[in-house]
Amino acid sequence: MTNAVMENILTRRTIRRFLTEQIQEEELQTVLDAGMYAPSAGGRQSVLFVVSQDKEVNEKLGKIKKKNSHVKMSTDTIYISKEQPSIADDPNIMNAFYDAPTVITLFVPKDFLYGPYDASAAAENMLLAAHSVGLGSCYIGSAWDSFRDPFGQEILKKWDIRTDYYAALHVLLGYPKEKEAPKGKERKEGRIIRV
């Protein structure tokens, strides 16, 4: 069965190469609305969405993230993407935000068990909404390490982030540099178990 929602899900791809042009406000608002309407445990709606379109800040935080990620480098047979390499695929990529013009950081309460799951649900909605309006997007997990130095701590204060919250993940947005999206990987068999 195919419909517009399923078509969007089946054709969405992670994008790590962006044009420098900033996205339109209407597109950004569509993505944010999708995140705001994501399911959340108990309907708490506790995820905070911080939008940064400051090139200098995004670049610095992306470099901090790369430095603190300690990723295990890919091999010839185990890799993230050959078409659009990640920081694990190419040691020459120094910015873990891939120069995306818009970076949205999702913050969650430190003392709420389901915060990271709520952020992940919001991020998935945002990625799908981004694709539906022609934007490229990329999900970056474990965002807390982007703020693990004096500059990051200064930015948290500048953004007035509550001290009882932490950065769960980032959603990168921008216009894709390539006209064609990366090819999707074949779906692995045997992952559905009917009982």
Largest sheet, in brief, is:
4 strands, antiparallel
The number of helical elements comes to 5
Helical residue percent band: 25-40%
Radius of gyration, in angstroms, nearest whole number: 17 Å
Number of strands: 4
Mean pLDDT: 95
Strands side by side in the biggest sheet = 1-2-4-3
Structural class: alpha+beta
Shape: globular
Name the beta content range: 5-15%
Run of helices and strands:
HHEHEHEHE
- What separation lies between the terminal Cα atoms? 23 Å
Poorly predicted runs are none
Which secondary structure elements does this structure contain, and how are they paired or packed?
Blueprint: H1 4-11, H2 25-36, E1 48-52, H3 55-69, E2 102-109, H4 115-132, E3 136-141, H5 150-158, E4 165-174
Antiparallel strand pairs: 1-2, 2-4, 3-4
Helix pairs in contact: 2-4
Describe this structure as you would to a colleague.
- Helix content is 32%, strand content 15%.
- With 195 residues, the protein is α+β, with helices and mostly antiparallel strands.
- The chain has a 4-stranded antiparallel β-sheet.
- Helix 2 runs antiparallel to helix 4.
- It starts with a helix and ends in a 21-residue tail after the last strand.
- The mean pLDDT is 95.
